Amino acid sequence: MGFVDNSGGVLAHYKMLETIRDFASANGWTVLRYDTVPANRELILKGVGYTGEEEIFVGFRTYQDAGADYYNLLAAVFTGYVPGNTFDSQPGARLSGVPAHNNRIDYWLTLNPQRIALAMKVGTPVYESAYVGKCLPYGRPSQYPYPVVCSGMLNGAATLRFSDTTANHSIGYKGNSARLGLRSNDNWLNAYCYPWGNAQIAGTNQIRDTGDVYHPLPIELHDNVNNLWGALDGIFYISGFNNAVENTFTLDSHDYVVIQDVARNGFTDYYALRLDN
Fold it and tell me: Whole-angstrom Cα distance, residue 62 to residue 122?
């Protein structure tokens, strides 16, 4: 947890990229590329997974337009790394934009050996989220060797500002949109996400706290037909009933923070982020 700003003449979203690099490299991720020469600065990382022997390729880069007043990050997952390729043309690239800011950004950044998750408070304020890396697959490695997820707030590098209030700007965790991609064994899928879409939990009826105790639910990736692929690692659905953004709680010795979807504050617009590191 912390913040970055534009002190010293460096824009805050550039400092956010540097913060991700520093935090990841200090906690077991290898920096394959960190290029601060172009306006669109690039970071590509490799993780080794819980086995210590995997190759998980993720990245972030900046994109911005001072005239349109947007200063964003682009979250990415790749199936490999080619040093001579551009960021966007890395093997199997999946990209999702995350609106940020040139001024102060408050952030919650957490990682483990297989994924990096980020939440940012920017602007008015609103809350932006990203997840890159592996999920927890419901299958053996021989069946499903590379179950990675790229989730952001926008469809690709969309030129939207943090103040955008349309449905095009929303957390990928709600599923069934290009904002979240799940890698199958041969392509990228736009997965549905449980429990969003379940009328008994996140629809007409609402779960709520029981005696001031909330019950986080795993966010599970499925196709709304026959296939259930896995769950996000450290990201949980939580009810917004009598709840508020930035609330914290401890469960099974882990600390969590409650994050909302941009400026939305309905019962179904919140999730809990586990703070691993």
Answer: 15
Residue whose C-alpha is closest to residue 74's, from 87, 84, 83, 85: 87
Q: Three-class SS string for the chain?
A: CEEECCHHHCCHHHHHHHHHHHHHHCCCCEEEEEECCCCCCEEEEEECCCCCCCCEEEEEEEEEECCCCEEEEEEEEECCCCCCCCCCCCCCCEEEEEECCCCCEEEEEEEECCEEEEEEEECCCEEEEEEEEECEECCCCCCCCCCEEEECCCCECCCCCCCCCCCCCCCHHHECCCCEEEECCCCEECCEEECCCCHHHHCCCECCCECCECCCEEEEEECCCCCEEEEEEEEEECCCCCCCCCCEEEECCEEEEEEECECCCCCCCEEEEECCC
Reading the chain (277 residues) residue by residue, the pLDDT tens digits are 999 999 999 999 999 999 999 999 999 999 999 999 999 999 999 999 999 999 999 999 999 999 999 999 999 999 999 999 999 999 999 999 999 999 999 999 999 999 999 999 999 999 999 999 999 999 999 999 999 999 999 999 999 999 999 999 999 999 999 999 999 999 999 999 999 988 888 887 778 888 888 889 999 999 999 999 999 999 999 999 999 999 999 999 999 999 999 999 999 999 999 999 7
Residues 6+ apart with CB under 8 A from 112: 50, 233, 234, 276, 277
